[in-house]
Request: fold
Amino acid sequence: MGLMNDIDAALETENAVTGGEPPKLEFRWSAQQNDFFRAIGEKARGNVVLRAGAGCGKTTTCLEGMRVFDGPCVYVAFNSDIAKASKARLARAGIRNGDARTTHSFGLSAIRKAFGRVDVDKEKGENIVREIVLGSADADPKPWERAHLASLKKAFGFSRNHNAQTAEDVEDSIDEAGIEVPIGRGEFVQQVLRAMEMSKARPGTVDFDDMLWLPVALGIKPEQVDACVGDEIQDWNQVQIALMFSAIRPGGRFFGVGDPLQAIYGFRGAAAGAFDTVVDLFGAEVMPLNVTYRCAKKIVAEANAVFPGALQAADDADDGIVETVDANLVGKLARPGDAILSRTNRPLISLCLRFMREGKCATIAGRDIGKRLTDLVKKSRAGTATQLVDWIENWKTREVERLEKRARPIDKVVDVAA
Reply:
């Protein structure tokens, strides 16, 4: 964050001195940043994607790169808050050929252009699954129907994000999201497909997922742009990728930025391997941006031991501290306010249970592990702990066999069963 904060501070100071005239930003850009700027300025270079590491100033680099582009250019931000902040930064830096939007704004404007008045209703998906399960959007679910509604709503959302078109596509979405299926699998998949058809038949009302999916599903071309800079492309889902690909006018250019090592939004529908998918789809040249202004030198060395060459420490970075601690001591060393990170949930669950036994408050963030376990307990109908353990072991065996037959990852099932 240091680079971006320094630049913002410089802009604010310069604006105050010049009476508010937005200046051209003067900054000592790195060799990698200057290479990227030159690539943007050379039309023959085509599409370019930055592989940007953590704390490498990617947003600042992209916004400044828009100044170099000869023509209008849209910065595609990850969410509306970032888009709003980026608009302000573009204005402060005097980058007048740039705008900042979200993929959802591209989708919603396309739907409204095609259908006229379109209302946004965040309950659209909920209402559709209620109609399917309960027969009416206004009906009150019985206790045993709530899990069915929750699973169907989640599968409906993931299937739209993945642009699922067949029963097999829906199966893939369910498995990737780790959704517990409360009824027969074939029947559940058909319910998801039915929900998608119902949503397509009601374009006058959209929810958040519809904004991206409907233009792709209905073949509606979004507003055409000369160029755009897509941020956090490693966390784009399938319909975001397809939507923005169709938004570039013939002869236009795409500039993206992301890092496959920071792909953390699979739980909300981000496409597996999204970074490489974008690069391949746009036929983009990949350039590095891996000098980090956030991480200390020893932390960079630790990261590079796992992912060689992923990061370079800035020349003026602190040395930092990296310590190796026995796993059994982690619980004793943890203090209120600490965060413990793990690649899988299993060690976190045992630690969390240990803290609770000791009367210490602890929670596991991220995927809704508690709900998944609760759903499994209800589905098992076990009367004792031993029966529950036996049921979960049998469930894991069945799920692993099913997933392996479909050549799908089994890690989420193993993680939950652990």
Q: What stands out?
A: The two ends are 37 Å apart (CA to CA).
